[in-house]
Amino acid sequence: MSDKQNRPSPFKLHTRSTECAARCGEVQTMHGTFRTPIFMPVGTQATVKAVTPENLVELGAEIILANTYHLYLRPGHELIRELGGLHHFMNWDRPILTDSGGFQIFSLRELAKITEEGAAFKSHLDGSLLFLSPEDAVEVQEALGSDIMMCLDTCIPYPADRTETLAATELTSRWAKRSRAAQHETGQLLFGIVQGSMYPDLRSLAVDQLLEIGFDGYALGGLSVGEPHELMMDITEHTAKLLPQDYPIYLMGVGTPENLVESVYRGVDMFDCVMPTRNARNGMLFTSRGRVVIKNSQYSTDPRPPDENCGCYTCRNYSRAYLRHLYMSREILAYHLNTIHNLYYFVGLMRSMRQAIENDSFLQFKKDFYEMRQEPE
Amino acid sequence: MSDKQNRPSPFKLHTRSTECAARCGEVQTMHGTFRTPIFMPVGTQATVKAVTPENLVELGAEIILANTYHLYLRPGHELIRELGGLHHFMNWDRPILTDSGGFQIFSLRELAKITEEGAAFKSHLDGSLLFLSPEDAVEVQEALGSDIMMCLDTCIPYPADRTETLAATELTSRWAKRSRAAQHETGQLLFGIVQGSMYPDLRSLAVDQLLEIGFDGYALGGLSVGEPHELMMDITEHTAKLLPQDYPIYLMGVGTPENLVESVYRGVDMFDCVMPTRNARNGMLFTSRGRVVIKNSQYSTDPRPPDENCGCYTCRNYSRAYLRHLYMSREILAYHLNTIHNLYYFVGLMRSMRQAIENDSFLQFKKDFYEMRQEPE
User: Fold this and answer.
1) What is the CATH number of domain B8-273?
2) Residues of B identified as active-site
3) Domain A2-273 - what CATH class?
4) Contacts of A111-120 spanning 24+ positions with Cβ under 8 A
5) What Å distances lie between residue A228 and A155, A235, A256, A341, CA to CA?
6) Tens of pLDDT along B191-227?
7) For residue A76, what is the nearest residue in chain B, using CA coordinates?
8) Which residues from chain B sit within 8 angstroms of residue A300, using beta carbons?
């Protein structure tokens, strides 16, 4: 236990903005380092949907996220362990962060029951009854061999009353302690998750309890669950300030390009979200000028790329007219090309933010970012 | 007219087997040459389903096929012309062959009506009434800018009575004459299609009538429409022998690996078929040992690639267990990886046949091909 507590931080700070809480750094893992602030594409079922690992490398992804809940159900963590771990299984040799399954179990709602011991839930695949304790979540993630593991947590819906929030937050802290104790010396990092809903003092309590245990990084959970944008940003700012500045700070499941800019401004280092990949499959493209809904008939004869300021494979080779044709024809290539573009946009946005922080011009970057989106095409 | 007739053949013979009718050569087009015997991946809607043009180049495809009927309906040939032609539209700079739409209209059956003037049919997309004459089919293909155009033909179901077959065959010849007359000097090649169902003398009649007009290549149509394998091979052999040996010979819509080997043996140079791409999306992989149905539970823990003799991207990087997981999880990457493998197999099979012909060892190749498929894994 004390060994884990005294382990050096995997985070190395490069530059701190003098204008705001934004900072640049890098995180060291068993599969190399990644630079922060970073966006992690989501690879739920051991694949980032519709693209290959080579596509991810080409578009600049340095770390991806995989979902413990999904892989636990199918194909099973023991199978993945036997086949050499998740990296080998899916042909990805850069870092992987696995979530704990807590958020997915929370999303099952009436199909799940939380007790002191852990979470009982029904599989969304076949309805079978399953149980995951904090120790099980660590064991599953150790079998997967991810570089960063997350503690099993109890996510709180919005809005939630104070009593319920306090109970869930304290349970999350007790589970965090059990998770740290269950961890073996595999070289994997383990992050704690701060809950506390929209109550600043409960967020503070959660931070204190996690710091008492000591983790390799700290995540903000239970945000982007339906609360107003301003509230999400206030809680993010409040919580990020309380966390030790020499450890990575990860805002889970966030978010829009605007969310990313605002959260980096408030000191967050790591993000993941299904938005770029899911919206790509629904024909929504993120661009420097805002969003392009590719099925709109205005694009049917448009010879321009999705984003004239973009250097991705899709924008270098295809027109909006072609992408609209593929989308209307339900061609698989539509999902592939749209996903490459959207992930390149998100990864590129983070790269631009890192450069702005290094140049200590983050406020100017933020101003330009918003102004660009208001210009007509 | 006479200019087109006197144009030199685009086909250059390299090697002729001394053991059988198999031959190696190349066909010259506006977008470069391709070697024969060749398999053309099918890109129905201006995309070979689930792969990029770069994937096709990497797996060795030298020419692809696109469907006139589908592109005529959506997005429309005029739009593709305005956007710079099909090559630019879909980002493919190697040769493209477009079919004429005849086979698709034939497949619509009760939705189509054939007259002397052309084919009236209902769109499968919105039921609108459309009409395509032989001249229209040439105009559409000229707008698309394909390297090889096909004459509009009337495909004959199997079985068909002699009177019906004679009428359809002669109509196809009259349409072929009108197609050749309608062609402009664009540099595009135009192939005639031999019909005649399973009647050798009507196939002979069709060949005579097409040779009278004169084309840049000759295709065998109306095969692989439900007739027994032996009959298909007999008609292929009979017809290929009648065609001028200094022009390319194309067997449309064929076929299985076995069909390809048997048809090359009988002198065929060009093939297209949806089988490798469609079966890939249904989880069926072609291998040197036969077929692998990837969803079968026997593969759930199998660490081997689909084909241990294969050098494709999929076999170099992924296990059967992973491909099965992707397929069971309905991940888009399953379609992508399976398609790359199957097309590589088909393209590689043609490459092996070309080498065997060049070494004048085609009979040995054919023997090994069948023996390999009987070996246990």
Assistant:
1) 3.20.20.105
2) 99, 272
3) alpha beta
4) A114/A154, A114/A171, A116/A171, A116/A174, A118/A152, A118/A175, A119/A152, A119/A154
5) 17, 11, 14, 28
6) 999 999 999 999 999 999 999 999 999 999 999 999 9
7) B325
8) 75, 79
